[in-house]
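retry 2 of 3: previous attempt timed out while embedding zinc ion. Reduced batch size to 1 and resubmitted. Inputs unchanged:
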Amino acid sequence: MIIRFLVGFILTAFSQQVIAQCSIIPTPSSYLEVGGEHSLEKQISVVSTSLSKGNRDFLKEQLNNLFSIELITVKKKPTIQFLRSEKLNSSYEIHVGETIIITYKTDADAFYAIASLMQLIDEKAGVVTVKKCEISDSPQFQWRGLHLDVARHFFTVDEVKRYIDLMAFYKFNTFHWHLTDDQGWRIEIKQYPRLTEVGAYRDSTLVGHYNASPRVYEKKKYGGFYTQEEIKEVVAYAAQKYVTVVPEIELPGHARAAIAAYPELSCTEQFLPVPGLWGVFDDIFCSKPETVQFLKNVLDEVVELFPADYIHIGGDEAPKERWNHCEKCEKVISENGLADAHELQSYFIQQMDDYLTAKGKKIIGWDEILEGGLSTNAAVMSWRGEEGGIEAANQKHNVVMSPTTYCYFDYYQSGSADEPLAIGGFLPLEKVYNYSIVPKEITAIAKKYILGGQANLWTEYIEDFEQVEYMVYPRALALIQNLWSKNKVNYNDFLAVFSTYQEPLLQKMKVNYSRSVYLPELKISRTENGVEYTFVSKRNEELKLTKETNRFDMGIGLQIGELEGNSYESQRTIFQLEEGYSINLKSSFLPKPIKYTFKNHSGLGLPVQLITKPHPKYSTNGDLTLVDGVVGARPWKGDQWLGFNEKETEIIVDLPENNVTEITVGFLDAKGSWIYLPQSIVLLVEDENGVWKKSKEVFITEEYQKIDLSVKAKRLKFKVISIDEIPKGNEGAGFQPWTFIDEIIIK
Ligand SMILES: [Zn+2]
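retry 2 succeeded.
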């Protein structure tokens, strides 16, 4: 007893719980440094009789690829020893002392222990060491997913394998393979060869953003598909890395590629090509029995290829336009006593649910499938926020959380003009990191239905695999902290671990990860005479700022000057000599200088009152946003703009004392994101009794609306009136459109 007590005492005296400095991501459940290092020779021996062949190969390959260490099978003094133990209280334990001892429960646990060990090894100047430590680890959630859309853009088998390699290395275990969509059918179905002969190829592809007008297309055949042999190869490959592949066959919407191959599957039965445009299309699978039978036949083949418990059947974004005007759909409605096309959607999903359930599978679908009731086995993927997930869990359905706000990796990671074109939305690393998988509002009983979560990568704007990696990393590292780690460290500690330990690893693995996290934060504040921009580095480094000026009085000439410090003040002046200017920022952590462009005008930093509050999601820097000299970027990257969702938006702007002749108000026209130009602006001026009187109304015709000013006033009130509703035939038809405003430029 005394001896044990003493040993315990010594251990605690010399060891330290320094979880924040643990190099492994996701952070393990416990980590204890015991002091000292274990250095690794270029050849090491391993006792691995309990390890599966796959895991032994994984260990060998990783040691070799990452650290040029060779595994040898000399038995006298092993460097690493693997032990399998069913009695372990955790998934695996790593003890680094004179020998490295790894104890694990299952083969998957051994795989994760090897991945962790790779992240413990440190290489400096050719010397390879491991800190002496004790680790114990188990995952928090069972569904740790990453999704890849191969329909909008196609990725080869090797690229898909690479995607799986990287996710497995970071302990993700579910690969959601989005195999069919409007723009391409990517899985061979033997019974229906035209699905891939015709449906896997499109003749043109949209260039630039969906919201651009006019739209431009590249007229080039584009496509590809996976044969059933290739699918089996990927599934087997993933299984070796303890990744389950969940296929998605989208229905009844997002079916244009299938309809192009077999027009009789739709309501109109007319030929339509595989579209090269993104979005939601009216032509979906008809609900008639023949189409349902077709889908069952397709699923027969799908089920054979994928051993996963779940088959994803989509279920989202299915407009009812065609169903509402189809005799065959009407017949299904009346024969089954359904009320309308919405109940028909549930009936449609239910048939798939029953069919797959009878085959021993479970369905999972986007949260729209909840609408009409589901079989007990069915699971829901909550993407339109967290409500669908909460509702499903309340109904005792398993749930995978994947809300757009935190899990859509096709959104922008920063507001930098250098980000590659993306669909829109703003999801920086920190936001992913601060996501909590279990919704706050959920009850304790419903909580246990949350299987986990996943990030989705839709590839409309992602043309090659380099960009796939750019969008996924490092955001996947932030997400896995939420999915795996029971002992998540704070964001700053995570960042430190990321840059110290994970970046060198990602570089060794040649991952094209995004460095956006190192962009300095741009803080804008009001000064007495304008606004001040301060660039705050996330690392203790000196930023180099140079200014490029565009001077009116000298024609278009460039002046380049170095700025001192990290701040720059922009003053509103009576005569604007400079229309605008750019500040170029150099940081040793960024591959190239970043350009920030600012606008000069007489309204910089003047008081603004937001009578109508912007939506909290789109409130950026509050009222200052409108007069901060940063003109909202197009396409919208999620910041810089104020977003309102009201019929009328009221804003009061103080005017400068000098003569104001013209005001320009910037609006965003991004119809695909439900953001529309408003109908008009009503200008009001205040009389001596403080009563606002209408001065003029201007109809909005363009994104930068110029207003000639003939009134003398100290303050102006803008009443921005939106259009009534999103017009028919557009995404979000019938809903209140969003109004996005920035900037109010005063001359
Ligand atoms: Zn129909």
